[in-house]
Design goal:
The protein has about 400 residues and is mostly helical. It has two domains: about 190 residues, Clc chloride channel; about 190 residues, Clc chloride channel (Orthogonal Bundle). The chain has 17 helices and no strands. The longest helix has 26 residues. The two termini are about 25 Å apart.
Length: about 400
C-alpha cells in the first residue's frame, strides 16, 4: 500500500510538472508538446534541467545517494531522506522533458516508505527485510504503469534473482495492492492504447528476424549508457549549465520530433498509432539513446527501462516500415514495434520473460501476441548469451 502511495505521489508531481512546462491542461505529454510554442519547447526543458540541477547540487553536496539495487542487495541502511528528495528531483527533470525513465523515482520512494513502514517489525531477518524492500521497489514500478505481474516479477527476477515461493508470494501481494492503490490515477487502464486492427500469426517469423536487430540495438544502448554515465555523481555547480544545456538540446530536437521529450511513452504511443514514417523512426532510433546519454553525462539520474523500450520500438517500426516499403506488404506496425521494444528490453535487463510480460501488460494486446514478444525477447537474449557469454545485466 505504501508503494501505491509512492506511485500516486510521483505520478501526480510528474503530471503537474509536464503541464507547467508545456502549458497544457488535458491529455498526454505528446499532445502538450505538439501544441506548445517553439520557444516554450526549447526553454521549458532548459529551465526544468536547471532547477533539477540546483536540487541535486544541494543534495549531493551534503549526502550520498547510493544505488537502489546495490543498497538492498548488500542489506545496507536505507537513506530514506536522500532517496525521497532524489526521487522528487528525478520527477522534476523527467516531467520537464528529459529523456530518462520515470520508474526510478517511485521505486526509490516506495523502498524508502517501505523501510519506514517495516522498521517496527523487530523480528524481521536481514533476508526478510531484503525481500520486502525489493517487493516495495517492484510494486512502485507496477503502480505507476499499472502492470501488477511485471511489477512482481521485477522484484523477484531483477532485484532478487530468485524463484523462491516466499519471495514470489510477497511480490505478487505487494504489487497487486500497489496497483490497486495507484488505480486512483491510472484507473487500472493500460498505459498504452492498443489499436483496433488485424494482425496475423505470420508475424511470429518477424519475431525471429527482429532478434539480431534488437540484440545490436540493445548492446549499443547499454554501451552508450555505460560510457555516458560519470564514474562518480556530479556534485559541483557545473551541474546547472550541463543539465540546462541538455534540456535545451532536447527542446530543439522536439521542434521536429515532439515524441522525443519525456521517458519514451510518446514514442511508444506514436508507434502503436502507426504514426511514424521510416525517416522519423530512424531519427528517433538515433536520437533517443543519444539524448538519454546526454542527460546522464550532464549529471542527471533516472530509469533506463522506458528509454530502452522507446529505442526498441523505433527499431521495430523502422524494420517493419522498411519491409512494407520494399516488398509492398502491409505488416502490422504496432505488433512488430512492441516486439522490438521487448527484444531490446530483454537485452538491457537480462530477463526475457519479464521483458515480454512487461511489454504485453503496458498495452494488453491480444494474448497470442505475448508469444511474439516472448519469441523476440528470448531469441535476442539467447543471441546475447552466445555472443558475449554474459547473462543478466539489470541496468535499469
Amino acid at each position: 500500500m505504501l508503494a501505491g502511495i509512492a506511485g500516486l505521489a510521483t505520478t501526480s508531481v510528474l503530471r503537474f510538472v509536464e503541464h507547467v512546462t508545456y502549458h497544457y491542461t488535458f491529455g498526454a505529454l505528446l499532445a502538450g508538446v505538439a501544441a506548445s510554442s517553439p520557444v516554450r519547447r526549447a526553454v521549458g526543458p532548459m529551465i526544468g534541467g536547471a532547477l533539477a540541477a540546483i536540487g541535486w547540487w544541494a543534495l549531493r553536496r551534503r549526502t550520498r545517494v547510493p544505488p537502489l539495487a546495490e543498497t538492498i542487495a548488500r542489506r545496507e541502511p536505507i537513506p530514506r531522506l536522500s532517496w525521497s528528495v532524489d526521487a522528487i528531483v528525478q520527477v522534476l527533470l523527467v516531467g520537464s522533458g528529459a529523456s530518462l525513465g520515470r520508474e526510478g523515482a517511485p521505486r526509490q520512494f516506495a523502498a524508502a516508505l517501505g523501510d519506514f513502514g517495516t522498521a517496527w517489525l523487530r523480528r524481521l531477518s536481514p533476508r526478510d527485510r531484503e525481500v520486502l524492500l525489493a517487493c516495495a521497489a517492484g510494486a512502485g514500478l507496477g503502480a505507476v504503469y499499472a502492470v501488477p505481474l511485471a511489477g512482481a516479477l521485477f522484484s523477484v527476477r531483477i532485484m532478487l534473482n530468485t524463484w523462491h515461493p516466499r519471495a514470489l508470494g510477497a511480490a505478487f501481494i505487494s504489487s497487486s495492492l500497489a496497483v490497486a492503490v495507484g488505480s486512483a490515477i491510472t484507473r487500472d487502464e493500460p498505459s498504452l492504447q492498443w489499436p483496433i486492427g488485424e494482425s496475423t500469426y505470420l508475424l511470429t517469423a518477424h519475431g525471429l528476424l527482429l532478434a539480431p536487430l534488437t540484440l545490436a540495438v540493445g548492446l549499443a544502448f547499454d554501451r552508450l549508457m555505460a560510457a555516458a554515465r560519470p564514474a562518480k555523481p556530479m556534485r559541483t555547480w557545473v551541474l546547472v549549465p550541463a543539465l540546462a544545456g541538455a534540456g535545451l538540446a532536447m527542446g530543439i530536437c522536439s521542434h521536429w520530433w515532439p515524441e522525443l521529450p519525456g521517458n519514451g511513452r510518446s514514442v511508444l504511443t506514436v508507434s502503436l498509432e502507426s504514426g511514424m514514417t521510416l525517416l522519423s523512426a530512424l531519427a528517433i532510433l538515433a536520437l533517443k539513446p543519444l539524448l538519454t546519454a546526454l542527460f546522464l553525462r550532464a549529471g542527471g539520474a533516472g530509469g533506463m527501462l522506458t528509454p530502452s523500450l522507446a529505442t526498441g520500438a523505433a527499431a521495430g517500426a523502422a524494420l517493419v516500415l522498411t519491409i512494407n516499403w520494399a516488398a509492398g506488404t502491409h505488416l502490422h506496425v504496432p505488433a512488430v514495434s512492441l516486439a522490438g521494444a521487448a527484444g531490446v528490453l530483454a537485452v538491457t535487463q537480462g530477463s526475457p520473460i519479464w521483458a515480454a510480460i512487461f511489454v504485453w501488460e503496458l498495452a494488453r494486446p491480444p494474448l497470442w501476441l505475448f508469444l511474439l514478444f516472448l519469441l523476440t525477447a528470448t531469441s535476442a537474449h539467447g543471441l546475447k548469451v552466445l555472443a558475449t557469454g554474459r547473462g543478466p545485466t539489470h541496468s535499469g
